[in-house]
Input
Amino acid sequence: MKKILFAALLLWSASVYAQDADVPSRVMQNHNLLSRSPNSGIGIKGGVNFASVHGSEKDKFGDVNSHTSFHAGVFAQFGLGNFFSLQPELLYSRKGYERQDSVFRMDYLEVPVLAVFNISDNLSVHLGPQVGVMVSAKVEDEEIDMEPYNTFDYGLSAGLEGKLGRFRLGTRYVHGFGDLRKQDSDGSNINEDIKNGVIQVYLGIAF
Output
């Protein structure tokens, strides 16, 4: 009887050891499944904004020109196969326009959620919606009241990105759909067809 119990205990110990030894391989297999996309990862990015306004009523602002500024933030990309992935971002983005000798500047916190289509291992197309919240508005570095503005903005983003090792170089256009202003200078309610638009050129580093 003792020999039978000893043999059973030995078999049970060997089984437990085999299961424990198999854990690293299963973890590695799961890791490989999560890492199949060539563009998976997290990182930081930043670059130049070429901001402007568009819409049928933008002439109410007079003769306006684009405003060159910046954006910066973080991104995470989740691979769903070799061809497709999702990329949410959190960006601080400066938009606005220039009129005569004055610069009108609006700063936003923005969240794009982009579908990424990998044309090749080094080139991808990005397309998706984004939302933003205005956090400040200035004219020539002087804070102005944000009450006349719609502080919530939304739009569509589309662009191309190239990848070389950890580095990513890309460009995109963000077409705003939200009206920039909700009130006139006298406080009357308006919803002018004047919206933000911005071309972005950026450099990112993935980790």
